[in-house]
Specification:
The protein is of the alpha/beta class and about 200 residues long. The chain is built from nine helices and seven strands, in the order E-H-E-H-H-E-E-H-H-E-E-H-H-H-E-H. Belongs to the CoaE family.
Amino acid sequence: MIILGLTGSIGMGKSATASLFRDGGVPVYDADAAVHALYAEGGAAVAPIEEAFPGVAEKGAIDRQKLRARVLDDAAAMKRLEGIVHPLAGEAQLDFRRRAKEQGSPFAVLDIPLLFETGGNRHCTYTLVVTAPADVQRARVLARPGMTEEAFEAILARQMPDADKRARADFILSTAHGFDFARDQVRAIIALMQRIASGEAP
């Protein structure tokens, strides 16, 4: 089964692009959704995170704002958090891959924000980077509720620069040209992946 790693910096349109793959009938693993499930009431990450960062859990779930305040500007705390979350998210991803393979899917998409930063691209057949001009990215992110310039800059500091991601990608998709353009690009990639999976293309 072909694995296409989908990534892109904050505000680039990665989640919208992932939805286009889903609309095309492709199984998509959403790393953010997997983490949300781990943080939710009854999630496997709640107890170990609360133990590591007392006071960030509320009503049996992780309060993401409190957790962000504790780790965003503290590299050691962030590394500790990642040491808890990444193995659990990895298990969820393996479960997704198994299900997609059992369903006979020719290929699947892994939607992972920090794909290159965590080395997840090593487990992908191909990679796709979603991009947009820096001014478009900034405007999109700062329009989000509760987002500040400081938080945006802190998030960017943790992410590989967009130019570096594009240099490593097998495919690049710009979301600056509108929905129809992005949808057409996704359809072309799906068709190519299907041809490769069937042996019709190298």
